[in-house]
Amino acid sequence: MHDSMDELVRLVTEQVLAALNNENKLEDARNEGKKKCLVLGGAEDIPKALHQDMILLDVKDYESIQNILRYSRVVITKLTMRQLADIAAGRPGDSLTCAVCQALLQGVEILMLESAAPHRQHAGKGSTAFYRMLEGYMNTLQVFGVKLIGCDSVMLNAPDKKQGEPTRCEVTGTKLITEEIAERLAKKAQEVVVPAGTLITPAAMDVLKEARVKLIRR
User: Fold this and answer.
1) What are φ and ψ of residue 183, in 5° steps?
2) pTM of the prediction?
3) CA-to-CA distance for 145 and 157, rounded, in angstroms?
4) 39 and 136 both lie in a single domain
5) Could you tell me if 117 and 164 lie in one domain?
6) In this structure, are 179 and 195 located in the same domain?
7) Taken in order 121, 127, 128, 134, is the CA torsion positive or negative?
8) Per-block average pLDDT, block size 10, for the chain (218 residues)?
9) What DSSP element (H or E) covers 130?
């Protein structure tokens, strides 16, 4: 009886492991060829437009691989003040700061949500000098090449498009143009002015091209 039970457990275990292995193979097949996005801080906060058609991986994946060129993009969604200071100083302390420093050195695109900055929620509440020092770190990251993605509402400064009249629209309040924003732009203008460093998703670019909207970067 005991031997029969052991055999049953062995057979069930083999079947479960085989099923898991098949599931992993199917997942690998689905993800084959997709670009990888390294998310530093938490994937729940990342806008869909920043990882469309990409595989999201966290810092544990970087720790196991130790190769920043594995990723097409790095997105920072949350930082501590120490991590912010370390990156600004070029000081690779923990795995997160090491990943960012390596991405900067090897030319991997880095995006950072404004909400990732830990001090922004305390604006105007405490020491102005201390806040300015932290903002200085933020400015340093942008000088290094980190693209800051704003969370403000998007302003499309232009009247509604009129038949036969060329119009120009200026985008403010965001560093990311998504497909939804592009559709709004296409309805308003034939020329769109966007700030330098603004990220335009592939889907948004397709919308603008199809609508024959001219992009002007400043």
Assistant:
1) -65, -40
2) 0.60
3) 28
4) yes
5) no
6) yes
7) negative
8) 69 73 53 81 76 86 94 93 95 94 95 85 83 90 85 48 64 74 83 81 85 85
9) helix 128-144
